[in-house]
Each structure stands twice: as C-alpha cells, then as structure tokens.
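Methods — Computational structure assignment.
A single polypeptide chain was analysed. Its primary sequence is given first, followed by the predicted tertiary structure written as structure tokens.
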Amino acid sequence: MRKFSTWNKLKTWLQSLSFRTGVIVLLCCIPFYILSFAQMLLPISTAAKGVLWTILFGLAKTFQYGGLTILGVEGYNRLKGWIKRRKGEGG
C-alpha cells in the first residue's frame, strides 16, 4: 500500500471542495495580480517593491492553482462553457 504525501492529501482535500468554492478561489487571484503590478507605482524603495511583488504575485499564483485544483478538468470545462455562453448572449 502506497503512503500519501502531504501534497497528495492537500490535493485530495482541495478536490473535495465544491465547484462554487473553486470559482471563488480562482477569482481571488485577480486582485492579487492587479496589486502585484500596481504596487510598482508606490513611492517606496526598489527592494520593498521586489518583496511586495514576490508576495503578491505568489498569492495570486497560489489562488490560481488552488482554484484550478478545486475545479478539476470537469469544473474547468464547465466554467469555460459558461463563459462562452455569456459571450454569445452579449453579442
């Protein structure tokens, strides 16, 4: 019998969450992407900007991959189909 690593346990737990939770987590990455680049406009040192960018961009990627893991292939295809249908309605 193969032992599960911590990563496999985490992945299994994330995949057990609902589709709606996956969409919410995936949408949370958008503000962090915006903040990771918008902070470059702040009047702070270059080192501080680098640290902020690393943290915010890392959080964006964490939410992105976490959301995609929760959704899985089926949920991703479902979300993609919903977006295509919405585009068709708007013209």
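Note: Residues 32 and 59 are 7 Å apart (CA to CA).
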